[in-house]
């Protein structure tokens, strides 16, 4: 699917990326002003990956996400109100204030959850793929993770299981160049992380992660293979996180010039240029404004909601039996 | 399936056969149930527990895995989240150390962290305990690790009937349940109902009643405590023997009631004493109204604080034996 030629698709792609950007700018601001507590991991600069990848999915498909997962949630269609309410520690949040930024899941959109453990979602994605296969289903699972996950044992074990059992899983690596402060150059001997695919006998491809079209094309191909029973694929999307790892990051491990050079490759600005022949200036401005307004509305709604209650805390640990 | 079974019929089965029967009945009853683990297929399981199930249910549902504990448990978590009822066999409970992230950080926490939006209905079966000469990395009793984690349920069947009934209840449960079987029990025989009768999680079994002291024991220590109780009876000491069966949820009420009646408690576990689960039971007793009825300090008889050694005489010395229980119980009653 060409994301730039059809006005509706171009608008949707742009709106998704702007919504992720505005949402994260807003939470960054709320945090800076002391109106939001805890910690968070922002994906500003990486919006093309979830936007491009999730456009390759259907209703009923699954995703697993990461600690840097707001973008995956939004691109999959999560409710901004419930996301913002969760971050603002409200009872109406996705997790009723029990999970926060790192644990938002949205069962309605097949989002099996963000994950605070690097690579934690990778074997879980293989398991969801196994469930689909056992049911003879047609769903696909997209597992998002960062470059840091690729050196975890869980990643190796999860990818291997998906490979040997031909499970319908697409492994999408958001290579943003750093696992916290550890650069990819220091953490890997391979040049491209997609080379790791060869070790599991599956296809691996590296794409420009700041181009939603490139991400979409690679993930679509992989989804097609997965649905056809041909097993998993590793897609490495090369991108960059503009902000620090989390709220405590002083950016001591990278230069201002490096960050600036990546900001010049802003995926949203690039996409706006790419769709200039399809969408008018007014259309593009409307996408931005709509994203800003949706985020503002989410903040207003969340702020008006009751704070998360500690009343039923111990009752919430175990699910009740249905038998 | 149940229609052709006599609801009152019991046969003598071994503990391993009872586990296998539960697995088979659960798979017949619910197509979402499937098994995965190392060598559970044609090999029949390292301890022969899964046996011929692969021939009855096929390789898809009795799924051999690579040696990949973290991946196996993670796959079970994912399958459970996506609507299946996976049952994992970890070949030795010691190997759960390889899978702890998926057990502790994922399976146990997902339901709570997600505000109840998802459940992880999975069972992890693993044999624990010493007595086979397998030494320190294949002989541990790790129940306290799991019992310490909110979100997990922890089951320790001590009889063939419970091996079946508790496992069936664990498979029904919408939460992750760790079932710690004991290697030395696999060949023990006992009456087991033919029907798939559940044994509710969270009910302490009173295995024997006596008025002089309460012995609380788990796993293989239950049969040792019962044997010790017979010897004690010949000496004129009458012991109650209680088997909690599940550590989470824990039915401490039955334990407190028994200790209230006897005034003495001897808590017996195979695991090392420090940080062991019997410390928790001791605390529950002294926190309760039973405290005022105690005639003696609460006593623990536990494994030594050592890794399980190889040589048979050393291995034996590292964990409580029948004669140790007799000695401790007798001293507790005579001294106090």
From TrEMBL, chain A:
Keyword Acetylation in annotation = no
SUPFAM superfamilies from the entry? Answer: Thiamin diphosphate-binding fold (THDP-binding)
Instruction: Name the source organism.
Output: Prauserella endophytica
InterPro entries tied to this protein:
DH_E1, PDH_E1_Alpha_Subunit, THDP-binding
Q: Which residues form the Dehydrogenase E1 component domain?
A: 16-308
Known cofactor(s)? thiamine diphosphate
- Note the PANTHER family from the entry: PYRUVATE DEHYDROGENASE E1 COMPONENT SUBUNIT ALPHA (PTHR11516:SF60), PYRUVATE DEHYDROGENASE E1 COMPONENT, ALPHA SUBUNIT BACTERIAL AND ORGANELLAR (PTHR11516)
Its recorded name reads Thiamine pyrophosphate-dependent dehydrogenase E1 component subunit alpha
Q: Which UniProt keywords apply?
A: Oxidoreductase, Thiamine pyrophosphate
Annotated region Disordered: the residues are 304-323
The answer, when asked if Oxidoreductase is one of the entry's keywords, is: yes
UniProtKB/TrEMBL annotation, chain B:
Q: Quote the InterPro entries the UniProt record gives.
A: THDP-binding (IPR029061), Transketo_C/PFOR_II (IPR009014), Transketolase-like_Pyr-bd (IPR005475), Transketolase_C (IPR033248)
Cofactor(s) the record lists:
thiamine diphosphate
Listed SUPFAM superfamilies: Thiamin diphosphate-binding fold (THDP-binding), TK C-terminal domain-like
| CDD domains from the UniProt entry | TPP_PYR_E1-PDHc-beta_like
Domain of life assignment: Bacteria
Concerning SMART domains, the annotation shows: Transket_pyr
Q: Which residues form the Transketolase-like pyrimidine-binding domain?
A: 13-188
Its keywords, alphabetically, are:
Oxidoreductase, Thiamine pyrophosphate
Q: Which Pfam families match?
A: Transket_pyr, Transketolase_C
Q: What is this protein called?
A: Alpha-ketoacid dehydrogenase subunit beta
């Amino acid at each position: 699917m060409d994301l730039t030629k059809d006005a509706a698709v171009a608008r949707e792609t742009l709106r998704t990326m702007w919504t992720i950007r505005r949402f994260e700018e807003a939470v960054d601001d709320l945090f800076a002003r002391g109106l939001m507590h805890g910690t968070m991991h922002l994906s500003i600069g990486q919006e093309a990956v979830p936007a491009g990848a999730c456009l390759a999915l259907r209703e009923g498909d699954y995703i697993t996400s990461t600690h840097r997962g707001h973008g995956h949630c939004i691109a999959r269609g999560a409710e901004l109100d419930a996301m913002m309410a969760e971050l603002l520690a409200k009872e109406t949040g996705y997790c009723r204030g029990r999970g926060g930024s790192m644990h938002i899941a949205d069962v309605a959109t097949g989002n099996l959850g963000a994950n605070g453990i690097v690579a934690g979602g990778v074997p879980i994605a293989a398991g969801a793929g196994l469930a689909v296969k056992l049911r003879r289903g047609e769903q696909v699972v997209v597992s998002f993770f960062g470059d840091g996950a690729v050196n975890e044992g869980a990643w190796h074990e999860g990818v291997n299981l998906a490979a040997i059992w031909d499970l319908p899983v697409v492994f999408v690596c958001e290579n943003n160049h750093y696992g916290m402060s550890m650069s990819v150059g220091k953490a890997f001997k391979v040049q491209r992380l997609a080379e790791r695919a060869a070790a599991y006998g599956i296809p691996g491809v590296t794409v420009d992660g700041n181009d939603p079209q490139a991400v979409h094309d690679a993930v679509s191909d992989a989804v097609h293979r997965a649905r056809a029973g041909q097993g998993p694929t590793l897609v490495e999307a090369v991108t960059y996180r503009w902000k620090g790892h989390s709220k405590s990051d002083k950016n001591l491990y990278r230069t201002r010039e490096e960050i600036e050079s990546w900001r010049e490759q802003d995926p949203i600005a690039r996409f706006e240029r790419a769709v200039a022949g399809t969408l008018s200036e007014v259309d593009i401005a409307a996408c931005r404004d709509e994203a800003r307004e949706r985020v503002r509305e989410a903040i207003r709604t969340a702020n008006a909601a009751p704070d998360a209650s500690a009343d039923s805390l111990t009752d919430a640990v175990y699910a009740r039996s249905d038998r | 399936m149940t229609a052709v079974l006599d609801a009152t019929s019991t046969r003598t089965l071994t503990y391993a056969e009872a586990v296998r029967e539960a697995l088979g009945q659960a798979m017949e009853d619910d197509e979402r149930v499937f098994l995965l683990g190392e060598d559970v297929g044609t090999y029949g399981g390292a301890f022969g527990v899964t046996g011929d199930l692969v021939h009855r249910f096929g390789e898809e549902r009795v799924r051999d895995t690579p040696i990949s504990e973290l991946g196996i448990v993670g796959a079970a978590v994912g399958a459970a989240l996506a609507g299946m009822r996976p049952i994992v066999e970890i070949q030795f409970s010691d190997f759960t150390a390889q899978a702890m992230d998926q057990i502790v950080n994922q399976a146990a926490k997902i339901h709570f962290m997600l505000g109840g939006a998802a459940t992880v209905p999975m069972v992890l079966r693993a044999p624990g305990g010493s007595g086979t000469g397998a030494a320190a990395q294949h002989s541990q009793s790790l129940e306290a690790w799991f019992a310490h984690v909110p979100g997990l349920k922890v089951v320790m069947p001590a009889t063939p009937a419970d091996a079946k009934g508790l496992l069936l209840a664990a498979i029904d449960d919408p939460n992750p349940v760790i079932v710690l079987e004991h290697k030395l029990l696999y060949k023990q025989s006992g009456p087991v109902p033919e029907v798939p009768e559940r044994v509710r999680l969270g009910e302490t079994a009173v295995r024997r009643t006596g008025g002089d002291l309460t012995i609380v024991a788990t796993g293989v220590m239950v049969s040792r405590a019962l044997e010790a109780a017979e010897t004690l009876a010949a000496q004129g000491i009458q012991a109650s023997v209680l088997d909690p069966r599940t550590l989470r949820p824990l039915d401490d009420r039955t334990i407190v009631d028994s200790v209230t009646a006897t005034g003495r408690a001897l808590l017996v576990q195979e695991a090392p004493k420090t940080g062991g689960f019997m410390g928790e039971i001791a605390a529950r007793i002294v926190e309760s109204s039973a405290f005022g009825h105690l005639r003696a300090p609460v006593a623990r008889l536990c494994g030594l604080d050592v890794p399980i050694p190889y040589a048979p005489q050393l291995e034996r010395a590292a964990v409580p034996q029948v004669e140790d229980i007799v000695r401790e119980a007798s001293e507790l009653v005579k001294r106090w």
